[in-house]
Amino acid sequence: MSNYPAAYCQGVIDIIPDGADKGIIPLTCSELFERVAQKQEADPATKFTVEVSYIEIYNEKVRDLLNPKNQGNLRVREHPSLGPYVEDLSKLVVSSFDEMMTLMDEGNKARTVAATNMNETSSRSHAVFTLLLTMKKHDADTNLDTEKVSRIK
User: Fold this and answer.
1) Banded model confidence at residue 14, pLDDT cuts 50, 70, 90
2) Residue 100 · residue 7 · CB < 8 Å
3) pLDDT digits (tens, 9 = 90+) for 105-120
């Protein structure tokens, strides 16, 4: 899920607003955790893992917002079959919507901000929040495990 100003209507439609009106990212993630809980309850042989990462792109530098100690410029690489990825990016496992939102809030606090003519604390960067959903299922008949991975940006 991308929190990318202008191109994704930041400022016109809040993606991550404060208050009672949830934005598209919190609504989607809330629904995701509800469905994961329903699926696990319906089929105990199915296990889900949710991992999150959060990057900031500012002045052509990539920074890990979930690991503030890493102030360096992370490198963007290209995997031949999986596509682009950020080398040494933190991926943190979350087990609930609240945990995920806490990490998103911490990442937002670490973003680069500066005053503009229109906004005193305008974000000066682009950010990408990514969820990695892994579903593992054990087939008792064949004694085999299957795994499906979905990346949501």
Assistant:
1) very low
2) no
3) 899 888 876 555 555 5
Instruction: Identify the DSSP state of 96.
Output: S
Q: Which of 84, 101, 83, 90 minimizes the C-alpha distance to 63?
A: 90
On the CB side of 121, CA atoms within 13 Å amount to 4
CA distances (Å), origin 37, targets 47, 66, 96, 129? 10, 25, 10, 22
Alpha-carbon gap, residue 9 to 1, rounded angstroms? 13
Residue with tokens 């990016």: 89
Instruction: Locate 94 and state its tokens.
Output: 């979350």
Q: Say how far apart CA 116 and CA 78 lie, in whole Å.
A: 35
CB distance 129 to 57 below 8 Å: no
